[in-house]
Each structure stands twice: as C-alpha cells, then as structure tokens.
Design brief:
6-stranded mixed beta sheet, 173 residues, 6 strands, alpha/beta, 34% strand
Length: 173
C-alpha cells in the first residue's frame, strides 16, 4: 500500500512537470508563443445598419471576455502583442425553411445570421496575421419578430463567432 502511494505521488509530479515544462501547452488547445503577453480588442463597429443598438458592445465584450477566460494574456486598450479589430458586416433575418400553406410558401423557421470581418495582427509573428469574414446563425420560430430578439437569444451566435476567431487565431484550426 505504501508503494502505491509513493507511485501515485511520483506520477502526479511527473505529469505536472511534463505538462508545464514547455510553457506553450494549454488545456484550451491554444498555441501561444511564451513571448506574447498582451492583447488588444478594438470595438467592432456595426456597419450592417441592422440589429440592436448594443450589438457593437455585445460583440466587442464577448471577444474580450472569451480571450481572457481562455488565455493568460493581459488585455490592454491598444497595441497589444495580438490585436483584434473589425466590423459587423451583416445582421440578416431570412427564411430558413419553407412550408406550403394553400398556394403560397410560408417560412416555418427564420434564420438570424451575423457576419463579422476580423483583422488579426500578431506583432511577434506577422506570418500569423489574417483578415477574414466569419458568419454564424441561429434559427427562430416563424412567429418571432426580429425586433423581439434579445441579448440572450443573440449571445449564442456571438459566442460561436468569437470561438471561430479564437480557433483560427490561437488554436491554429
């Protein structure tokens, strides 16, 4: 029994040393160079002409919160080692599934699609820089009005967008 306890303790310290030894590995799947310490996220302006009045704030804050939760980078207002900026390109509500009612086609499900244009700059490794569009959507019942969609309903779309950008920029997916 005593040998088993010593084995467990040794295994624990070996795993702890092995997993933290390189300083780059993360349980979130990120691949961040140890020299990168800071990041900045500029506001994502809503250039779609649609959506709730706080869409800029919702998208920008979700970027800041998600990256801070999933990395050890310090958020600074501008000129971070990693920089994110962009714009909200579209906030589009359209029919996703049609059904016949008599002689006419009627939407049974409506889809809200949000698209972002993101510019990512890695000041430590410019080869990682990119500018790309990202889109995500969610379906809503046909009787739900676009003006009644609140932050709680919009949040999963924004979270998916931010996760896609995170994976492209830091997880190299």
């Amino acid at each position: 029994m005593k040998n088993y306890s010593v084995f467990k303790t040794s295994l624990f310290f070996w795993l702890a040393f092995t997993l933290t030894g390189c300083g780059v590995y993360s349980f979130t799947g990120t691949n961040i160079d140890p020299s990168i310490k800071t990041m900045s996220v500029l506001n994502f302006e809503n250039n779609s002409g649609q959506g709730p009045s706080n869409l800029t704030q919702l998208v920008s804050e979700e970027f800041r919160d998600y990256f801070q939760r999933n990395t050890n980078l310090k958020l600074i207002p501008q000129n971070g080692d990693l920089q994110f900026e962009g714009q909200i390109l579209s906030f589009n509500f359209s029919p996703a599934a049609l059904q016949k009612q008599g002689e006419t086609d009627v939407a049974s499900v409506n889809r809200l699609t949000v698209s972002l244009q993101v510019r990512y700059k890695n000041n430590k490794d410019p080869k990682q820089d990119f500018e790309q569009s990202f889109s995500a959507f969610r379906d809503f019942q046909q009787n739900q009005n676009i003006s009644s969609i609140d932050n709680a309903a919009l949040r999963p779309i924004v979270e998916q967008l931010v996760m896609d950008v995170f994976n492209k920029s830091l997880a190299n997916w």
